[in-house]
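Worked example 2:
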Amino acid sequence: MPLPSLLKDNLSIPVICAPMFLVSSPKLVIENCKNGIVGSFPALNIRPQEKLDEWLTQISQELEQFKLDNPEKKVAPFAVNQVVHPSNSRLMADHELIKKHKVPMVITSQGNPAAIVKEVHGWGGIVFHDVIKTEHAKKAIAAGVDGIIVVGAGAGGHGGHHNPFALVREIREFWDGPLALAGAINDGQGIRAAEVLGADMAYMGTRFIATKEAQAPEDYKNMLLDASINDIIFSDHFTGVHANYLKASIEQAGIDPNDLQSKDNVDLDLGSGNSWKNIWSAGHGVGGIHSILSIEELAQQLIKEYKTACQLKPFC
């Protein structure tokens, strides 16, 4: 099954810039879309909740104007991430604003997306749901989603436990629809590798933190440049859901990374808690990040690497 025309006709490269808590901003979203990459943000990034209306207005208006001024350019749609876990007390309030603006793409996570799917399809939008297990994918498909985001081991933020080679192939046994892969993809070669494995798109987060437009402290960005795979810790200590974090940020917050205890409940609606402000997530691919670029520079670099990788056919 091909990608929906909303994506296929408007991308310069098959990439979604993943929604990143306290990192994604209107500026990051807009610049990605202008360069043919799906830009996204978590609804929970906005505090207070009512400001979501302002974010959606800004993104929609700037992208529409850019399309009018640059009819020859591919401009990707933007997406909003909705955490559909019961702990998200803002879910319906956020959804009403997303509905008001007829957001073209919604990324759901951490729960059953069925109710959201029906509403989004009502205004012509599409829904991708992220999963870390085969059974989660089956439930999302039954709920009517348009695409599956496979979050494999090594993904930044809330990541999975399973090897992406195994997980993608297992899901492809029963799903021939749109599929994006997340997990340590930082360059054009990784994007192409995801396609060869069976994905239609790459879902990239960590690499976009080290950009000029990312709403992240400079210390965070520089920590990424200095990190390697050995500097990543996988823990459910902070939210009750396993995620990958930079060891140095945990130590910097005065916490012993060797003494992290499992959280006995899931709490994804973190409000203004300091956990996500001072403890920074990153994926296993940090060792391949060596510079802080603008989104335009990064997009051109990814496109060049991707095209080169597409020409490599060593035994075919």
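The CA atoms of residues 15 and 269 lie 27 Å apart. The chain has a mean pLDDT of 92.
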